[in-house]
Design brief:
By secondary structure, the chain is of the alpha+beta class. It contains 23 helices and nine strands. The longest helix has 33 residues, at 426-458.
Length: 651
């Protein structure tokens, strides 16, 4: 009886406690005589202690202290049973008790999500260890799975809730042995429990817009219904659900969370002090909202939006938290930095080499199972305080962080376990900037193209509109999609100069473009967009249906990128890159093989940008019903100023 085990916490009399202790100790001795272990008594003790600690922490603590004191005395004085593993038994009970208390010391609010999650996982890791008989304390382990699932669900961390459920799913088999009721689960067979958990996981993943993982769970149920229980009604239902999930992937836009690097310096808890973490933000949570959330949790700490705290910060404040927004480097860059396993490299290569992979699929791939992150720190090395060309001596220090687990996982913050630093030269930085801008424009073109095709379809337009998937690929997934540098020159300029200082000279073929001598270069592949800058127009280019018959297409994103790139290319951006790195003077003083590769890479990226801008303007012109004036201005600037500005470097 629980009231007899009160141990001074409001429970029974000393006589009843002694009687219970005598019975309890005799159970230990009897089990050891029969089995040479005390595993069953240990499991009973752990379950009882867990229940008491969670129901009433004060009484649970009193019970544990009484139990520990009584057992130590009996194990030490019982000369008749000297082989009893008393020390090991007490060590297990004491460790679990400490883990339980560490979990309970935090308030049950969302602000302590990370601490409660890490304590629960530490407890679960201990419970998952096999005892002397080779068994795992499954029932208690599953109770903490329930605890963690409920924690994530309350905070609307639906992906994490679903992934946590899989910890139990993967420990169950499709067997008929019966399981006892637990929480909301009735008494049922093991395969029924597994089926129920998979259905719950599908619900969590669907709500969290992780439709790919929901489909994986559907596939597990399909095999069960089709080959185990032959329940074709349920099979048909799961297949319909799976079809709807595939439709969501293809048709519903998704927003992915940002990631942040957080360093704790000063007088923090041991778990945090001096440590570096990667935090997974909420969907659509901006850095300002994230920092406010951290500030609410640590109101007495000084927050700095820097790469690391300064010495004066540490002198003036007892607690410093440094926050940095992280980037997700492309898989190609991660592979080049040797941060991918061979198995991961094969998986990446298989996906990126498939020309039929659509943008939603690639976006999911780029934003999931991520353990490598990056942030960049600029270093201006020009002697002048305000250099005329800021890019000429602008070096970039790239830091790659590796977290202890891949996101999303069962927690929303993970410790950084390793890091690597690389320094980008100014010309490599310029090449990256041009490349990133090209990718941004192409992705916006993809959106406009898809919206235009949808508008035409809704308005009964011509059937010749191609699906976005049918447009050919740009980038190292399909190098042949781009013309050679020579072909690009012919389509842009009336003359073909091959002078050594020419911006478009010495280009070579497009395949050379993707050999990537610069390991920091990002992949230009745009998911689902096959695009040939000299030969093909985007799908909506062939549509001649009057605008009045079609739905208005959103072009603001594309307009902003075109305007920023073309207008800046005349007085800044492209012009500054050319003046810094593509002049005779620069090439004469940077004449090594590596330098030549960097120069050619920048030329190639600029060739791409000229072609991308040309096609982007064409697409914008076909859909800019309300921006004709801006279109004409951008078109004139592109033809009369930008191209001429670049052409001078070919003479």
């Amino acid at each position: 009886r629980r009231d007899s085990w009160g141990g001074g916490g409001g429970g029974g009399s000393p006589e009843s406690q002694k009687l219970c202790m005598d019975i309890y100790y005799s159970m230990i001795v009897t089990e050891y005589k029969c089995t040479s272990t005390i595993n069953r008594v240990e499991r009973f003790t752990i379950d009882f202690l867990s229940e008491m600690v969670h129901d009433n922490q004060v009484r649970g603590e009193a019970f544990y202290r009484m139990l520990e004191e009584e057992l130590k005395q009996r194990f030490a004085t019982d000369v008749a049973h000297t082989k009893l593993p008393g020390a090991l038994f007490l060590d297990h009970i004491g460790h679990l008790h400490d883990l339980m208390l560490s979990l309970l010391k935090f308030p049950t609010t969302g602000i302590y999500e990370d601490e409660r999650t890490s304590r629960a996982l530490a407890l679960m890791d201990y419970l998952r260890k096999k005892d002397e008989s080779g068994n795992i304390r499954k029932e208690m382990y599953f109770r903490y799975v329930d605890f963690l699932v409920e924690l994530h669900a309350e905070l609307k961390n639906y992906q994490e809730a679903g992934i946590t459920l899989l910890l139990e799913v993967d420990m169950l088999d499709w067997k008929d042995n019966m399981l006892e009721p637990r929480g909301e689960f009735p008494r049922e067979s093991e395969k029924q429990r597994k089926e129920r958990l998979l259905q719950n996981a599908i619900s969590f993943f669907t709500t969290g817009q992780d439709w790919e993982r929901a489909i994986e769970m559907c596939e597990r149920l399909e095999a069960f219904y089709r080959y185990d229980v032959f329940d074709y009604d349920f099979l048909a239902s799961v297949l319909r659900q799976e079809a709807e999930l595939f439709h969501k992937i293809a048709s519903t836009p998704r927003f992915y969370p940002s990631y942040y690097r957080v360093i704790f310096c000063g007088e923090f808890e041991d778990e945090e002090n001096g440590n570096e973490y990667v935090y997974r933000g909420g969907r659509l949570e901006k850095v300002m909202n994230f920092t406010q959330r951290i500030k609410r949790k640590y109101p007495d700490a000084k927050l700095v939006m820097r790469w690391s705290p300064k010495e004066e910060d540490l002198k003036e404040h007892k607690k410093i938290i440094a926050i940095t927004t992280l980037k997700l480097p492309s898989w190609q860059v991660i592979a080049e930095k040797e941060l991918l396993s061979e198995e991961e490299k094969k998986r990446v290569l298989k996906l990126r080499s498939n020309p039929h992979v659509t943008e939603p699929v690639m976006q999911y791939f780029e934003n999931n199972n991520r353990s490598v992150f990056m942030y960049e720190k600029p270093e201006q090395r020009a002697k002048e305080k305000r250099p005329a060309n800021e890019f000429k001596e602008l070096w970039i220090r790239q830091t790659f962080l590796v977290s202890e687990a891949s996101f999303p996982t069962v927690r929303r913050r993970c410790r950084v376990v390793s890091k690597k630093e690389f320094m980008l030269t100014p010309i490599e930085n310029a090449t990256n900037l041009v490349h990133e801008k090209n990718c941004q424009i192409l992705k916006e073109m993809k959106k406009v193209s898809a919206a235009a095709a949808e508008a035409m379809s809704a308005g009964g337009g011509m059937g010749s509109v191609k699906s976005p998937r049918s447009i050919s690929n740009v980038g190292d997934r399909a190098p042949s999609g781009l013309p050679t540098a020579r072909q690009s020159r012919k389509s842009i300029f009336s003359r073909n100069n091959s002078a050594r200082g020419s911006i478009f000279g010495g280009g070579g073929t497009s395949s050379a473009m993707f050999s990537s001598p610069n390991a920091s270069q990002k992949n230009l592949a745009v998911p689902g967009l096959n695009f040939n800058v000299s030969q093909k127009r985007l799908s909506v280019s062939n549509v001649n249906t009057p605008a009045s018959e079609t739905k208005k297409v959103e072009v603001n994103g594309l307009l902003a990128l075109l305007q920023g790139t073309i207008d800046a290319g005349v007085n800044g951006g492209t012009k500054l890159f050319c003046e810094a790195f593509l002049t005779e003077g620069y090439i004469d003083t940077h004449n090594s093989e590596t330098d030549s590769q960097h120069v050619n890479k920048l030329r190639e990226r600029l060739i791409e940008q000229v072609g991308v801008l040309k096609e982007g303007l064409k697409l914008f012109g076909e859909n800019c019903q309300d921006y004709r004036g801006l279109y004409e201005h951008l078109n004139a600037t592109y033809n009369q100023k930008l191209l001429k500005s670049l052409e001078q470097y070919t003479s």
